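note to self: dont lose this again. the chain is below, predicted strucutre after it. 352 aa total, dont forget to put it in the shared folder this time
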Amino acid sequence: MRRMFGWVVWPILVLLWGCSTALAQSRIDHFAFSSDAFDGNKVGASSDRAVQVYLPPSYDQSERAFPTLYYLHSFFEDETALFETYDGKARLDEAIASGALDHVIVVAADFSTPVGGGFYTSSSVTGDWLNFVAVDLVSEIDQTYRTLPQPSSRGIFGHHAGAYGAIRVASRRPDVFGAVYGMHPVATGHGNILMQSRPDWQALEDATSLADLDGNFLNQIFTIIYQANLPNPDRPPFYFDPPARVKDGELIIDAALTEVLQQSFFLERHVGDYAENLKSLRAFKFDWGRHDGNQDHVYSNQFYSRKLNEFGIPHEAEEYNGGWGDGMFNSGGRIETDVLPFFQRHLQFEEQ
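---
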């Protein structure tokens, strides 16, 4: 009788366990922590950084450790972009349920500044973004959650300016991140349009505060670029050295500052210095839409891929049939069909 009871109860327990597993839900944690990476910055970037963390369905049902993906958002966004604006939780749930992705932790932090961003570049004006991402944030996550604290189990990705940041950070810290995917990165190299012709230089000269940038999108973007790459803590209100000016209606370009800017800013200028770091990554991919309204992005990404080839750096580069931001985060979009399967192929899901 006792043996019969065991044979009856055991299938029921298995069934109940299966139901419990099937009903397990992913969740988003919210918290904030303080970093000294922004001490002394001139633009008012807060040292308190908000973070959202996706924990997969099995996180609360097991004691295992998980690989981690870090997401970098674009201009004028914050930690809410991936999971709230782009419905990233649903995309991750769908990928895991379909078997396209094993269970992972995904981290989205606030990388914004009062101007709109820091371009993931360490600057005396906007803060030490490289160390914030690769040291402070990673340490906070590893201490708080059950992660696999090894570069082979960490990936980094982003879109547009965040894609630029992901590639820039990974090229400098392959000891932290093992794989990188850039979704339609900007500033990979030179475009066809004269860079210094884009800002409204007269409006920048007349402005007396950061608030005067509101409503002028290009001036905001280029202020972010210049603060990151031509910082001058002693030059308020924008705290950068201008690489051009307008005099009597003529654009006057400062050649020396333009060289400093391009050397610091364009990813293709960094290839030689960080070639061995890039070669040491487990995987490196970026993509872009062929019909981007700003063809500079198309041209520069094509050139960047060729530059990587010149230095023998393994990578995947894909030009797809779409425009700026097309089909990235929608159901069945590129984050599901390309980005997450990329990390599934290249990250290590078990402890070394």
